[in-house]
Amino acid sequence: MITIINLAEANLFINLSQTITHNDYETVLEPVIADILKQHQQVNVCVIFANDFAGFELHALVDDAMMGIKYWQYWHKIAFIAEPKWLHTLVTTIEAINPIEVESFSTTLQAELWFNEEEIF
User: Fold this and answer.
1) Domain 2-115 falls in which CATH fold?
2) Beta carbons within 10 angstroms of residue 95's beta carbon
3) How far is the C-alpha of 22 from the C-alpha of 24, rounded, in Å?
């Protein structure tokens, strides 16, 4: 399940819990990102993994990849909080080959401070 936990300007904080589905992308994440981009040129996303995060359905993985491509030029910074170990390895790899800034943090406050280090608007 994807839950929007905070939206301030172009800083989007989402919580991932249980199993992430196609419906989560279609009805929760896609509309909010589209709305942000109506008012801002870029978006920062903080992804928080809940203790009960169980993974992604296959269709949701495809949705994630498609969304990443669709909005590629609009991503500014992506932060991960409490990510699973396998994802930490992936984040490290992405950082090396990706022009988008990606970081892992322990708290949402750290992510928020990082997002606000520079003004993007």
Assistant:
1) Transcription Regulator spoIIAA (3.30.750)
2) 14
3) 5
- Helices assigned H by DSSP within 1-121: 22-24, 30-39, 58-70, 85-97, 108-115
The torsion angles phi and psi of 96, rounded to 5 degrees, stand at: -75, -25
Encoded amino acid at 9, one letter: E
In a structure prediction context, what are the per-residue pLDDT tens digits for the chain, which is 121 residues long?
Answer: 999 998 888 999 999 999 999 999 999 999 999 999 999 999 999 999 999 999 999 999 999 999 988 998 999 999 999 866 767 677 677 667 777 888 889 899 999 999 988 655 4
Which 3 state secondary structure label does DSSP give 35? helix
Q: What is the pTM of this model?
A: 0.87
Residue type at 118 in one-letter notation = E
Q: What is the torsional sign of CA 34, 14, 112, 103? A: negative
Q: What are the boundaries of each domain within the chain?
A: 2-115
Residues paired with residue 12 on neighbouring β-strands, in sequence order: 7, 45
